[in-house]
Amino acid sequence: MTPDLSQLLAYPTPNIFLEYRQVNLAPTIFAEGLTDFTWTLPSGLSVNLANGAIVGSPQEIVDWTDYSVTATAFGHAVSAPVKIRTGLGYQVNDPGDQGGSCDTDTNVCTLRAALEESNAIGDSQTRLILVPAGTYPVTQATLSIATNVEILGDGQTTTIIDASGSPHGLFVVSKGPGLSTQKVIFSDLTMQNGSTSQSGGNLDIFSGSDVSLSRVTVTGGVSNLIDGGGGIATGGNLTLDFCTVSMNSHDGIVSTDASAVVVRDSLISGNNSGSSGGGIHCAGASLDVERSLIAGNQANNQGGGLFIGCGATITNTTISGNMTAQGGAAYVAVGSLDLLNDTIVDNNGGAGDTGGIDASPSTTVTLQSTILARNFAGTMGSNCNTALSSRGDNLTNGACSECALSSSTGDICGVDPGLAALADNGGPTQSYLPNAGGPAIDHAAGPLGGCPPVDQRGLPRPVGGGCDIGSVEVQ
């Protein structure tokens, strides 16, 4: 009988190794009797024939590449895949906040020391900063990033960078004098509890810098400026993928200058503003939100979920449970808001005038295949207090006249949307699943070419006779 070859040799994967630093990666499975080892690995790495470990020090920089180690067992070739990336950088090995030296494997290397060393070099080379699981208190000054770096944690809930009790922000990103552009990446970590009298409690990004966050939680940040961005303030370009921005004060995200903000597959929840835009306050160039949930945010004046002072596009997104006096879901002050296959329900205008969408007269709000229903307010329009531009196939429980919708473009008015409760229906964020046989099912054709290829959960569209209205496609 041929043995199960996959149970003879295997390695943990994927792996990031630092150039010129020692590697000793033990296999997760190493059967007795393996012989005739061969391998394809980055220059400087080899295999210890006695125990199968990948050893050595990388002598080249490579992006993610599929390598393999091959051996012979019982007359059969055994091949174990291993995905490897190598780069120049630092391995954090101490949770303290003191400076230090990260030049060798034996020195104490804190996160602050790694950033200070990278800043001091000041060249355009991207450096990796590997931060293992643990809590890293930031008790001194704000952590400054002036070069191209990637800060890679162990996991969104296991690597915690925490400024609790410190009277300063957490990170500031501003390109150094030797750089024409700056790229900074954070992944697989939490940044929390930064507090500042300036902008950007947890993360402050200056104009000229591009910052990306992947699988990052930004929480508990405070800015003492009105609309200062307790979570994130950005004058540069910002991209969030699979992130959570929650429980920040004076806005979750604030954008200014000519910044472009992209939010995908993320949760913006429980943030508050003393003025406008509890979840996201866009005063930059553009905002693009896809497959996300904006829920439970609050603002004192306008735009509980979103304050739009830019060109904004929201696609396959749920906006729910947000609250303010004017535009519980969104307020459009300047620019435009384009809504495609969104679910905008159960937002609250309080004693004010609009629970759903409100806008100033000089702006444009366009919607297609969107559910705009069950929003409420104390005085004027519940779902909207402005004339919207319909591209067709929208669904509201109010009269068509409330938002200037029309049955002639396929809009459905005066009908409950027929949604189950907000829940985990798959995908990275909660959503509202349309009930079987409800008015949202298979209704939307879309005069501009139909719906997006996937829904909020990343599942395919259309299923059945047409696209479903709203952010979720029933499978």
Fold blueprint:
Layout: E1 9-10, E2 15-18, E3 23-25, E4 29-30, E5 35-40, E6 45-47, E7 54-56, E8 65-73, E9 76-87, E10 89-91, H1 111-121, E11 127-130, E12 134-137, E13 143-145, E14 149-152, E15 159-162, E16 171-173, E17 182-192, E18 195-196, E19 203-205, E20 209-219, E21 222-223, E22 232-234, E23 237-241, E24 244-246, E25 253-255, E26 260-264, E27 267-269, E28 272-273, E29 280-282, E30 286-290, E31 293-295, E32 298-299, E33 306-315, E34 318-320, E35 330-340, E36 343-345, E37 357-359, E38 364-368, E39 371-373, E40 389-392, H2 400-403
Parallel strand pairs: 2-9, 10-11, 11-14, 12-15, 13-16, 14-17, 15-17, 16-19, 17-20, 18-21, 19-22, 20-23, 20-24, 22-25, 23-26, 24-27, 25-29, 26-30, 27-31, 28-32, 29-33, 30-33, 31-34, 33-35, 34-36, 35-37, 35-38, 36-39, 38-40
Antiparallel strand pairs: 1-4, 3-7, 5-8, 6-7, 8-9
Give a verbal description of the structure.
There is one protein chain. The chain is 3% helix and 37% strand. It is mainly beta and 475 residues long. The strands form six sheets. The protein has a 27-stranded parallel sheet that branches. The chain has a four-stranded mixed sheet with strand order 2-9-8-5, with no helix packed on it. β6 and β7 form a beta hairpin. It is globular.
